[in-house]
Design a protein that fits this description.
Helix content is 23%, strand content 31%. The protein is of the alpha/beta class. The protein has two domains: 2-120, no CATH class; 125-212, Nucleotidyltransferase, domain 5, CATH 3.30.420. Strands 1, 2, 3, 4, 5 and 6 form a six-stranded mixed beta sheet that branches. The protein has a six-stranded mixed beta sheet with strand order 7-12-11-8-9-10, covered by helices on one side. Helix 2 links the parallel strand 4 (65-70) and strand 5.
């Protein structure tokens, strides 16, 4: 992993004199701190044109674990289509490794180290809401709507901490379907996904489909 740390530092230094930049999202709960046999991809933020996105995927090898480094200031509207394209690229590659996974790279400010969140099994549904696909909700299925203003769940509005507390104190089985506002930043997205790691109730499940509207 030492070479990857150096590579991240090089990216920061290189982009100090260019319009593109990369600042990793900060999270606190992921305990994945080392991944071997990796290829990195970068989704850069353009400081001169905040509505644009540049992707560097030239060093990706389909049989390795992919570390996707996304600038935390990008919106989901910008980042998720590019991330989905990377997933499709790996899935359609002629050479595959069924054990190779995909991770988002983040930074833990407490330990001052890189950490990673896996998204191998996540299926992103673009430009649509969960309600448009789930016509009849099962008794144990609930949609969670995440925007920059609030988290809406079972007709109530939550902050992130109170939402996690509500799940950890529930006595009911529930499967959560995540519905994300496309205008939230990648920092907010990864912070929410990281917080889900602190759910201790085994009866709380997360659907692998994520809807971006």
């Amino acid at each position: 992993m030492k070479s990857f740390y150096i590579l991240i530092i090089a990216v920061f230094c290189f982009n100090c004199t260019n319009d593109k930049a990369l600042e990793l999202a900060e999270i606190h709960h992921s305990n994945i701190t080392e991944i071997l046999d990796v290829s990195p991809a970068y989704l850069f933020y353009n400081t001169a044109n905040i509505d644009s996105l540049e992707v560097n995927k030239r060093n990706l090898i389909s049989t390795t674990n992919w570390l996707v480094n996304v600038d935390k200031r990008l919106s989901l509207k910008q980042a998720i289509p590019a991330i989905k394209a990377l997933q499709d690229k790996k899935e359609n590659a002629s050479h595959k490794n069924k054990n190779a996974k995909n991770y988002f790279t983040a930074f833990n400010p407490n330990s001052k180290n890189l950490c990673f969140l896996e998204f191998t099994a996540t299926t992103f549904r673009l430009n649509t809401k969960a309600t448009e696909h789930i016509k009849t909700l099962h008794d144990t299925t609930a949609i969670v709507d995440i925007s920059s203003e609030a988290i809406r769940y079972q007709n109530q509005v939550y902050k992130l901490n109170t939402f996690i507390n509500a799940l950890n104190t529930t006595n009911n089985s529930v499967k959560l379907v995540l519905n994300f506002d496309q205008h939230i930043t990648f920092q907010d997205y990864l912070q929410f996904k990281d917080a889900l790691l602190t759910i201790t109730k085994t009866a709380v499940l997360i659907d692998r489909n994520e809807f971006i509207y």
